[in-house]
Write a structure and sequence with these properties.
The protein is mainly alpha-helical and about 200 residues long. It is about 70% helix and about 0% strand. It contains nine helices and no strands. It is elongated and about 55 Å long. The two termini are about 30 Å apart.
Length: about 200
């Protein structure tokens, strides 16, 4: 997805992998507490119970830690979508869109740091891929899934999904600004907005 990995080196041993995981978890919890600007590599290391030098063995700076955390969230999002689509009867493309929408809301509520970080815009509009902005990365993944599962050509689904993602992103941010778990009426309006728009653009 990205042109270069945020890690200086990949953890080889299980112990190193667990240490990196602790750093990511620490970063996520700190972002919830103090926001991205308040997080430092020293705080991450202290929360993870590692020496700051150990952090620098794997990450060059705070941005790289947050990028790795965001990439992990994208993988969770994609994996969650794949699992839901594999275990749910989908009679219409809207069923898939509905599933994706609900998964995003659930991640916002349940995944540490996700509510403030989302898919990285707070850090860099191109944190996930230096050639595309973050929402484009997400909308392209959704487009591929819709196209593959419902036989709609990519060139018919890509632009409508991209616009729907941008619109939903703005309204969902409003919902979670109003209420930490998402204002229910605004969430319902966001879903109605996406469904109404895509119904006029994608084949029934």
């Amino acid at each position: 997805m990205t042109s270069s990995t945020p890690l200086r080196r990949q953890p080889v041993q299980q112990r190193s992998a667990k240490r990196v995981e602790r750093m990511l978890e620490a970063c996520a919890s700190l972002i919830d507490e103090v926001g991205y600007d308040g997080v430092t590599t020293t705080l991450i290391a202290e929360r993870a119970g590692v020496a700051v030098g150990s952090l620098y063995q794997f990450f060059p700076d705070k941005r790289a830690v947050v990028q790795a955390l965001t990439l992990r969230n994208v993988d969770r999002f994609s994996q969650g979508i794949t699992e839901k689509l594999a275990t749910t009867t989908l009679e219409h493309w809207w069923d898939a869109v509905d599933t994706i929408f609900d998964l995003f809301v659930a991640m916002h509520r349940e995944i540490p740091g996700f509510g403030k970080l989302h898919f990285g815009d707070v850090v860099d509009m191109r944190l996930l891929d230096d050639r595309r902005d973050n929402n484009a990365v997400i909308s392209d993944r959704i487009s591929e899934l819709i196209s593959a599962n419902f036989g709609i050509p990519m060139d018919e689904v890509q632009l409508p999904i991209a616009i729907a993602v941008e619109a939903a992103d703005a309204v969902l941010k409003l919902a979670f600004r109003i209420e930490p778990n998402g204002e229910p009426r605004v969430l319902a309006e966001a879903k109605a907005l996406v469904r109404g728009y895509l119904s006029s653009r994608l084949p029934s």
